[in-house]
Amino acid sequence: MTMLASSAPRLTAIPLSTTDRIASAVIDGLWGTLVGALGELTGIGVLGLPFMQRAYLAAICVAVIGPLVGSFLVHREMAMIGDTLAHSAFAGVAAGLFVNTVFAVTVPPLLAALVVAAVAAVAVQTLIDYAGTYRDASLAIVLTGSFAVGSVLITATDGGIAVGINAYLFGSLATVSRANAALLVALTLVVVTAVAVAYRPLLYTTFDEVGARAAGLPVARYNRLLAVLTAVVVVGAMQIMGVILVAGMLVVPVAATTPVTGFKRSLLAAVAVGQLATIGGVTLAYQYDVAAGGTIILVAITTYLAVTIGSRLRHRRVAGDTSAEN
Amino acid sequence: MAVLTAENVTFAYAETPVVDGVSLTVEAGAFLGLVGPNGSGKSTLLELLIGLRRPDSGTVELFGESATSFDDGERIGYVPQDVATANGEMPVTVAEAVRMGRYPHRWYGRFDDADRAAITDALDRVGIADLADRRVGRLSGGQRQRVFIARALAAGADLLALDEPTVGVDADSREAFYDLLHELNDEGLTIILIEHDIGVVTTHASEIACLNRELFFHGDPETFVETDALADAYGGSQHVIAHDH
What we know:
The complex is a heterodimer of chains A (326) and B (245).
Chain A: H1 2-7, H2 9-12, H3 17-42, H4 50-74, H5 81-103, H6 109-131, H7 135-156, H8 162-170, H9 178-197, H10 199-207, H11 209-214, H12 219-241, H13 246-256, H14 263-288, H15 292-325
Helix pairs in contact in A: 3-4, 3-9, 4-9, 4-12, 4-13, 4-14, 5-6, 5-7, 5-8, 5-12, 5-13, 6-7, 6-12, 8-12, 9-12, 13-14, 13-15, 14-15
Chain B: E1 2-13, E2 16-27, E3 31-35, H1 42-49, E4 57-62, E5 65-66, E6 76-79, H2 94-99, H3 113-125, H4 141-155, E7 159-163, H5 171-186, E8 190-194, H6 198-204, E9 207-212, E10 214-219, H7 221-226, H8 229-233
Parallel strand pairs in B: 3-8, 3-9, 6-7, 7-8
Antiparallel strand pairs in B: 1-2, 1-4, 4-5, 9-10
């Protein structure tokens, strides 16, 4: 526990007594007791470990919000915006750590990441809307620009913060501190509520943007909302997924469930595939002591391949049956 | 009553003027065919007329309000240009797409009986009730057009704006589609339609507007075919698509 706390000390260091107590009650009290009891019931020992309890909680949250927001991105052909915002979140983490080291003030790196990624999200959307730049060029500019800022900031402190940055780059189960888990739960509630409230505008805009404008919808506003939600998801999921792999949770489960007919059904199916990938990935990562983010993505891609090949074969058989009837 | 009034509307992309000094009135119940050569500004004019673009100068009024600040979105049904040919991998079903017609009435909250009835009626009216659970992206071009018409009907639109809706649709479906538009127009729906096929549009529309940056003609189809407006707009040398019916 001491070892774990030291790997992500800055958030826990903020004196937020009431928030801390709520986080402790929810994460340790409610969730910990629940999962611990489940562990005893099933005899799965790993469920009794507090840091694994938090890792599973994070896994579940990530697999809800990633595919939820990703469903709207993928069908607008904006799958790569997640990757861009993850890299800008990385710049935010670097900026947070830099400020902490140089000015000796306490800025939680994840908060810095959230702010920078949200600003980058609005910047990307504005570039796309007004600058007339190609969409993927806009994304590439913001992606590399952010990563450039991050890498410069890291090296500007003589490598002092390079150690801390590693956990954010590749993700880690151990970085999910109690405070980070509480933050992720809060972000999940925000994202789920926002998507539930804005579901119809987001769906209409994704399906037919011009039609949505003709129907009187302020489309630009909802595009910015979606970009900011993406930033929130990326920052929330970054802890276990890592900057480089976080975009996968926005895209792979959605791609896997595109054969499902009906947008709402495919969205729910994507969340289910996400759960399979994250819970399976976290378990395997712990079992074999390998990177959680990478394992999660590999499970997700395996599912994607299985579903895609399966649905192709099924279509071929259906097509074969129909032609045999005629 | 005028559904739509454009006065001296001008619009340019950067330095290139696309629509120049167009004045046009569309009365309720009209079936207006908008024709003109490629690149003549038809699509831009249609977008200006329904408030998707702001004119550089001049005014457009929709149902008596400024088109750019018009917010009764449900009164306008818009069928985009590439609807029949766009590759739709998005898993939206026909029912989901038609439900979108009710969204401008209810962006949040549960649909009530009136909403559900409007959706069912719209699906029945255009004859796609049996396709309700199919994916829009897996339908033929002709079926997809009907989905978008049904969406407009579910909205209770008073004005239907279609941008070259029959591109990529086979001849039989196209005839059936124009028959449907005819019926809807007879029932009181105002229609503005961009169509590159002059023969089709002069057969079906009740009035023609011929555009090549400027408005060359606006009147009934019979007069249109007798005047030189077509040749003037097309510059005389361009190949004109026309059919005998």
